[in-house]
């Protein structure tokens, strides 16, 4: 299994390294650390928003549906809330990622943080499931916008030798937010009559969004790229990405970004409501404990993903992560169950392996695109996958009903999405020795 390039010959696959290099020198160390902390914080609260509904969904549905609530209907609404968030994230990743290439990564990241904070906070006041559904879409706009701008900003502000480490930190940030949420939920009750407080907490990151807008330095590479753009006929970033010579690169990024996202939401996340259904009666905090074990593994995995990609090569590492994700996700749903002694250990292992992707992607995706479309390209690659994720989650919701409300059945069937990664990676260019332009 060689890591040498085997991408299909095409004039559409171009190296950013073939484009002009950026001009200004790096930011001072203190400014780089400020950028890293702000981006980490933005993605940490991104993870808080992503982990919120897997924990709160059944409690929200029990309260808002009242006497009409059934376990199957609760699972169906969980799929709808997740799909709404994913659709919003897909749209936000494209629109706000493109905004980052136009007005700057820092400003676009600040706007994205404000989006997810404000609309998450409004969730504390909803009276119907439909109102919550709309708000989850709006939260998704900000969730999707933070990732491409944070990743592009950090990648452009830190030197080449540090990029595997900072890419791992970007991946770990989201899962740190999920772990933080799970710990909060273990200390305060999250039930049918007590869930609105969680959405009030979710509004707090608006403070970070304002600080980012006011004080965070901008990427020197982006500033230089803007200064070089004297050609008024240059296409808009999205249009440029979907025509030669960047079309092949963009489609590759979308393919590789979609598989881990669909797998995470259409397969892995069913373990939380499953844990609540089986273990919640005996231990009300069992779902929070399950998410905590998964998130702890995920923090380690997403941090290690960039390092593993650097050591093994981009393609070989993606193949092995895909293989491990299939094995462990199927094991989680078929070889153990909530309340069994082995359950938390397999949840931890699945969280570690399946989230190696999310340290791999922040390293790989910025390497595919030149500076002037890097945030847009990374955002499209990562977030167009969320359109597929929304479809995958809705399909999993239909499978859930077809399986008669069986969480192991739907989780096992959806786990097969990871197997596609073992095939798709061999059509991708190997950027292992490629520097950012």
Q: How many angstroms does the end-to-end distance come to? A: 29 Å
What is the rounded Rg? 21 Å
Major β-sheet profile = none
Q: Please, what is the average pLDDT?
A: 86
CATH fold-level name: Growth Hormone, Chain: A
Mass-distribution shape: globular
Query: What's the number of domains?
Result: 1
Structure, described:
- This protein is an all-alpha fold and 437 residues long.
- The protein has one domain: Growth Hormone, Chain: A, CATH 1.20.1250.
- 73% of the residues lie in helices and 0% in strands.
- It has 18 helices and no strands.
Per-chain topology:
Elements lengths: L28 H37 L5 H33 L1 H18 L6 H29 L5 H25 L8 H6 L4 H10 L4 H9 L8 H5 L5 H20 L4 H9 L6 H27 L1 H21 L8 H12 L2 H12 L5 H29 L4 H8 L2 H8 L13
Helix pairs in contact: 1-2, 1-3, 1-4, 1-5, 2-3, 2-4, 2-16, 3-4, 3-7, 4-5, 4-16, 5-12, 5-15, 10-15, 10-16, 10-18, 11-12, 12-13, 12-14, 12-15, 13-14, 13-17, 13-18, 15-16, 16-17
In short:
The protein is mainly alpha-helical and 437 residues long.
